[in-house]
Design a protein that fits this description.
9% of the residues lie in helices and 48% in strands. The strands form four sheets. It has a six-stranded mixed β-barrel with strand order 1-2-7-3-6-5. The chain starts with a strand and ends in a 5-residue tail after the last strand. It is mainly beta and 364 residues long. This is PDZ domain-containing protein. InterPro entries: PDZ, PDZ_6, PDZ_sf, Peptidase_aspartic_dom_sf.
């Protein structure tokens, strides 16, 4: 996630996720609207990927934001009546909302994931990379799209229209593909994340190759939704999926909506193979300080299952290091750090402490 400190109507700062996959500003924490004193003007219905039904959100107009001196005025925001995403639990820190189109619309934005910096300038003012590549974008209903070719497991090549989604953690998500018999034999059934209307279920596997301009990625970890998002009622822009941070962070990149372009320069991790979680554990942060890590699902037959870990177990330490001192990203990286690697986990269950040795197991 790309998280920035943001002031809303002069108050804050609050933690907002920069998310090119959203149009209107979304306030996910209803208490923020109360503390800032936002006035709701009307109600809209939001829909999106997820297993739940569409739901109502209220619209507040004429709000302002300030991100380290970058200001936007007279903006509108959708305020959720309750936090349906639980982003704070998955980020391990308080998250108050998402900001997308209003941030990107009139600016060129440079993301350097290797030194964790964000550079912003007027459109056209950032220098293009000498050894990079310009990728054409189309901006439709406030979201950026690109064209990419994908070689599926059966060697069939398809041309896809993908949302460039800085806010998505996965490398690649594809819709409409499961019914076309393009999956390899090896895949995982699981939770792909949380959409606007709840959990997104689907399959996780690999595609043989992904082509973005001249760049080729092999054996890309890919999420396959079981929902046809391109033909979902109310979706005006047909698409085949999205390109997430798992791919984008391999580059230093510039997104420039005004010039309908994205500029890419490979980074030091460009050739690093794609790996998926090897523990079989799904977990989240809870507690007032979001420092308690709780397992909410154990994949049957996975390393975690074989070890004896259970739903609702709290992870205290990994290799004797307290998880309270780690970020969620650090924990994620440990659990995909290498097949056959053994880790010592200290677990709290039913008011007792237990110690387990888990041996990571490559599942894809």
């Amino acid at each position: 996630m790309v998280i920035v400190k943001t002031k809303i109507d002069g108050k804050g700062p609050y933690n907002f996720i920069i998310d090119s996959g959203v149009g209107i500003i979304i306030i996910t924490d209803p208490s923020l609207a109360d503390s800032v004193g936002m006035q709701s003007r009307r109600t809209i219905k939001l829909s999106g990927l997820g297993t739940g039904e569409d739901f109502d959100a209220t619209i507040s107009s004429n709000i302002s934001f300030d991100i380290n001196g970058i200001k936007g005025n007279n903006m509108s925001a959708a305020i959720l009546r309750k936090d349906r995403f639980g982003l704070s639990n998955y980020a391990g820190m308080p998250i108050h909302g998402l900001i997308g189109y209003d941030f990107f619309n009139s600016l060129a934005v440079k993301f350097n994931f290797f030194d964790s910096t964000l550079t912003v300038a007027r459109s056209g003012y950032l220098k293009e990379f000498k050894k990079g590549l310009k990728i054409p974008l189309t901006i439709e209903q406030g979201k950026p799209y690109l064209e990419a070719r994908i070689k599926m497991a059966d060697n069939k090549e398809v041309t896809t229209k993908l949302v460039v989604d800085i806010g998505a953690g996965h490398p690649l998500m594809l819709d409409n593909m499961v019914t076309n018999n393009t999956l390899p034999q090896k895949f995982i059934v699981g939770n792909l994340g949380v959409g606007l209307t709840g959990p997104v279920s689907g399959l996780i596997s690999r595609v043989k190759e992904l082509y973005i301009g001249k760049y080729v990625f092999k054996n890309v970890i890919t999420s396959f939704t079981l929902t046809d998002s391109a033909t979902t009622t109310g979706r005006a822009i047909p698409r085949d999926g999205n390109l997430g941070l798992g791919i984008l962070k391999k580059f230093t990149l510039i997104i420039d909506y005004q010039n309908n372009a994205m500029y890419l320069k490979p980074g030091k991790d460009f050739k690093t193979p794609f790996e998926h979680d090897m523990s079989g554990l799904e977990y989240y942060a809870e507690g007032d300080d979001l420092r308690t890590i709780v397992i909410n699902r154990v994949e049957p037959g996975s390393a975690g299952d074989i070890t004896g870990l259970q739903k609702d177990d709290a992870i205290l330490n990994i290799n004797f290091k307290p998880v309270a001192d780690m970020s969620i990203q650090e924990i994620d990286d440990i659990f995909k750090s290498g097949a056959d690697r053994s880790l010592i986990l200290d677990i709290y269950r039913d008011k007792k402490r237990y110690r387990y040795i888990i041996t990571l197991k490559r599942r894809l």
